[in-house]
Amino acid sequence: MAFANVTGLDGSGLALNPLFSRIMLALFILLAGFIVGRLLGLLVRRILVDVKFDRHLKYLGVRVPVERFLGSSISFLIYLATIFLTLNTLALTSTILTLVAFGIVFVVIVSFLLAIKDFFPNLFAGARIKMSDLFQEGDEIKILEVRGKVVVIGFLETKLITALKEEVIIPNVLFVKRKLIVNRRKPARNARKKN
Questions:
Q1: Is 155 a domain residue?
Q2: What are the tens digits of pLDDT across the range 111-170?
Q3: Selection from 173, 140, 180 nearest residue 154 by Cα
Q4: Number of domains making up the chain
């Protein structure tokens, strides 16, 4: 491993490891980048506040605080560039980006699997409810501690309206697993009676 010789003020030689030099440079870039990012974000926000940018946008109908958003966005972009430069200085850019990519793929796969875990049981329970005529829209049901009138029977969930006019959404799988009490609605009387 090669070492660089650095001569001190007293003439004594000090050997520095190139890895140590890169780490020190990376720390300097990181510190300087975060300071510059923060200062530029505050500067942009201050300029936009001075020109009353949000007030002018309110006249156009925009109610979003753009001053804060733009200042924070500038800071964030500079922070991101700083982190990229720091990783590049340490020769870790491709390694870290690969790890981040694998992390994102892992999170997406786990999220998908968790969504499927609830999707299919609710779908099958919804199909069973519709086919077996367990209850219909307009019926009053009680499941667990909830009592209400069935408004919508979907394939994944059923919507009830309680006596207090609260809307309650219940996953269909609960109707298959729990005790259910159904009070059928009375059929509507026809205006004409058949002979």
A1: yes
A2: 988 888 888 899 999 999 888 888 888 999 998 889 999 999 998 999 999 999 999 999
A3: 173
A4: 2
Which of 45, 65, 91 delimits the end of a domain?
91
Return the DSSP state at 163.
T
Place of tokens 């049981």: 121
What gap in Å lies between CA 86 and CA 30, rounded to an integer? 6
**Residue in 160, 152, 156, 155 with CA at minimum distance from that of residue 180:** 160
Which residue range is the domain that position 41 belongs to? 4-91
Greatest alpha-carbon span in the chain: 121
Report pLDDT digits (tens) over 78-115.
999 999 899 888 888 888 888 888 999 999 999 988 88
Residues 86 and 34 in one domain: yes
Instruction: Tell me the C-alpha distance between 150 and 129, whole Å.
Output: 12
pTM across the whole model: 0.48
* Domain assignment of residue 145, yes or no: yes
